[in-house]
Specification:
Elements: E1 27-28, E2 35-39, H1 67-79, E3 86-90, H2 100-109, E4 113-118, H3 122-125, H4 127-140, E5 144-149, H5 155-162, H6 166-179, E6 184-189, H7 196-210, E7 222-225, H8 241-245, E8 257-261, E9 270-272, E10 296-297, H9 301-308
Parallel strand pairs: 2-3, 2-8, 3-4, 4-5, 5-6, 6-7
Antiparallel strand pairs: 1-10, 8-9
The protein binds iron/sulfur cluster.
């Protein structure tokens, strides 16, 4: 392990097809579209100590995508005959984007499932947004789901990552969503050196205290994300790794999902391989979804730490 990303060996994750040791690099074939992520922009109302996508109150390198731009991808899903999929929104904080509810409405209207990732804080709790969410719920019911980020079940630990007072505001938003029976899940982190069972037991107590009908032992209700240490000297993933590690490439996120991002100043959005790599041009397929449904070479350290060795998936 190293402490500084600049100290990492540069020969690793360099060649698209071959690792630094000369072995064949692993790749993932695209199977089918299950989830199209739409990044709503990197602006966020808070600044976490370790944000994987480097969002924040002044961070706009990924701009707000508009309703019209998002709708073009819904059109393309129809044109390609991909059927009903999950349209998932992530940021930044998606409810900072003024078109968030309208984009969700468009996706739901066309028969897709919608998932919105949020910290459930002030942007979501504005009256106009709450009205929008209630309207969508009344029209589309259980097809609209929200995933709330609670880094740790304890207030002190969560606030150390997200800022003083953030836990209380997130819990208030969570209570509001639960009171209106929105389908919910929780996303937490595993950065605390605690065993998974300890984390799940802690969240189970929290859910009980809040009266939430959520099973903390169900990986789809409480998603515990592996950490992405950008300073870790991780092994490269070769074609032999699938068998050695007993990992099925069909279960890796980029086999079934893509993400749309709108870079600041760009003429149009781009489709990228996954939610984890918005800034690496090697994983950018260009503006059209139809050009983005091919093989992905696992040529980034996140492929190793998060997906193959960590077993993580944003779509759990
Ligand atoms: S980081 Fe992205 S591109 Fe790499 S394996 Fe994971 S999903 Fe695929």
């Amino acid at each position: 392990m190293t402490a500084n990303p600049d100290d990492l060996p540069r020969e690793k994750f360099a060649h698209p097809d071959v690792t630094a040791k000369g072995e064949a690099r692993a790749s993932v074939d695209f199977r089918r579209l299950e989830t199209l992520w739409i990044n709503t922009g990197t602006l966020c109302n808070i600044e976490c100590a370790h944000c994987y996508i480097h969002s924040g109150p002044t961070e706009d390198r990924l701009a707000y995508i508009t309703r019209e731009e998002a709708a073009r991808y819904l059109d393309e899903i129809d044109e390609l005959g991909l059927g009903a999929v999950e349209i998932a929104f992530t940021g930044g904080e998606p409810f900072m984007n003024p078109d968030m509810c309208a984009m969700a409405e468009d996706a739901l209207h066309r028969g897709h499932e919608v998932l919105i990732l949020t910290n459930a804080m002030q942007p979501m709790m504005r009256p106009r947004v709450r009205e929008g969410l209630l309207d969508l719920k009344s029209r589309f019911g259980q097809r609209l789901r929200l995933r709330i980020s609670i880094d740790h079940h304890l207030e002190e630990t969560h606030d150390r990552e997200r800022g003083t007072g953030s836990y209380a505001r997130t819990i208030a938003g969570l209570r509001w969503l639960a009171a209106h029976a929105f389908p919910l899940s929780i996303a937490a982190r595993t950065a605390w050196g605690e065993a998974e069972e300890v984390m799940r037991a802690g969240f189970s107590s929290l859910f009980q205290k809040l009266g939430l009908n959520l099973d903390a032992h169900d990986p789809a209700s409480l998603i515990l994300f592996p950490e992405m240490d950008e300073a870790a000297d991780v092994p490269e993933i070769t074609t032999a790794c699938w068998n050695i590690l007993h990992v099925d490439p069909a279960q890796v996120m980029c086999a079934t999902s893509r993400m749309v991002v709108k870079r600041k100043g760009a003429q149009e959005p781009s489709v990228i391989a996954c939610t984890l790599l918005p800034d690496d041009p090697k994983f950018d397929f260009g503006p059209r979804l139809c050009d983005a449904l091919g093989r992905v070479k696992l040529n980034h350290r996140h492929c190793a730490t998060f997906c193959v060795l960590g077993g993580g998936s944003c779509t759990a």
